[in-house]
TrEMBL record:
Organism from which the protein derives: Thermococcus piezophilus
Xref: InterPro entries: 4Fe4S-binding_SPASM_dom, Aldolase_TIM, Radical_SAM_PqqE_MftC-like, rSAM_sf
Residues in the signal sequence: none
A Pfam family hit: SPASM
NCBIfam families to which the protein is assigned, alphabetical: rSAM_more_4Fe4S
Protein name: Fe-S oxidoreductase
Occurrences of domain 4Fe4S-binding SPASM (ranges): 223-281
Superkingdom of this protein's organism: Archaea
Length: 310
């Protein structure tokens, strides 16, 4: 994936400041979208991450992290998972994100398979405590997932082969991270944790959500080009929008999922279609996480985290 530095001040000094490439938004949010399939986020299990769908997932980049979900039926077979990956490649998809694993062996085997058949970009998100159970795999980009602490950032330095790190942090901890010295060379995605209500925000949310995307007048900066598939086979516009099922891949192929009107509507869900955003002068430079808003309001078109609601 093309690297984009969030704050140029972090580039001063080689292997001194963290290589922060995205803050509070997925690393593809800046990319121009064309309305075609770009990425597949494939969940491999129920997961046992820190946050769960029962208690809430307040993560700004929780879509590519490991969370805990309730499976509504039997998960997809390994054969069906591999078939989906083959379909994804044949349909021109580029980024495969593998998350929410229950067994590390299954994650690495699926990642290896995807790399072997030539998926252009394969990302596997591994919890920090599991790093000792894996080894580098050719053409697989491993990303460590961790909660921010100086000790955890230090632990990354022993794994310089990692592609990057997904760091869960409060806004205050993000400020600490920016000033931290580290020899870890990988990309860092800062997964900012949001409070349950806008009344508890303690950071400049407008600045945090600022994004430059040339296609934002036509496509959603985050959802466009994205298909998520749960471990049990439900296709979603986002891994965290569990109640917005687009299709069932136990019954249909990925090609048919892409034809679903509901998916296309999410891809084209611009700020012009959200009441309270449509008249805002900043609507095209404001990152939009529908999952966070849905969690806070119960409405996928909700608008909790905005001090400028018009």
């Amino acid at each position: 994936m093309e690297k984009v530095v969030y704050d140029s001040t972090n580039a001063a000094g080689v292997n001194a400041s963290p290589n922060i490439v995205s803050v509070g938004k997925p690393p593809w949010s800046h990319r121009t979208h064309s309305g075609k399939l770009e990425r597949l986020i494939l969940q491999l299990g129920a997961g046992n991450g820190r946050f769960s769908e029962v208690t809430g997932i307040p993560r700004s980049i929780g879509c590519i992290g490991n969370n805990s979900f309730l499976l509504r039926r039997e998960p997809l077979s390994p054969e069906r998972v591999r078939e989906l990956i083959r379909d994804f490649k044949e349909l021109g998809g580029r980024e495969l994100w593998l998350t929410n694993y229950d067994r590390i062996e299954y994650l690495t085997s699926i990642a290896s398979y995807a790399a072997e058949i030539g998926v252009p970009e394969v990302y596997a998100v591994i919890k920090l405590e599991d790093l000792g159970l894996i080894h580098p795999v050719e053409d697989v980009h491993f990303i460590a997932e961790l909660e921010y602490s100086e000790e955890n950032i230090k632990r990354l330095e022993a794994h310089g082969w990692l592609h990057g790190a997904l760091v869960m942090a409060t806004a205050k901890q993000y400020d600490e991270l920016r000033s931290l010295s580290t020899a870890f060379p990988g990309e860092i995605y800062v997964d900012v944790l949001y409070p349950g209500s806008a009344r508890k925000l303690d950071f400049n949310v407008i600045e945090m959500k600022r994004v430059i995307n040339a296609s934002s007048e036509e496509y959603h900066d985050c959802l466009s080009g994205t298909v998520a598939i749960t471990a049990e086979g439900y296709a979603l516009p986002c891994p965290l929008l569990r109640n917005y099922i687009v299709a069932d891949v136990k019954e249909v192929r990925l090609k048919k999922v892409l034809r679903k009107r509901r998916l296309k509507e999410f891809w084209r869900l611009t700020k012009d279609k959200i009441e309270g955003c449509s008249n805002c002068p900043f609507k095209y430079v404001c990152h939009d996480c529908r999952a966070l808003e849905y969690q806070a309001t119960g409405d996928v078109y909700g608008l909790e985290y905005c001090p400028l609601e018009l």
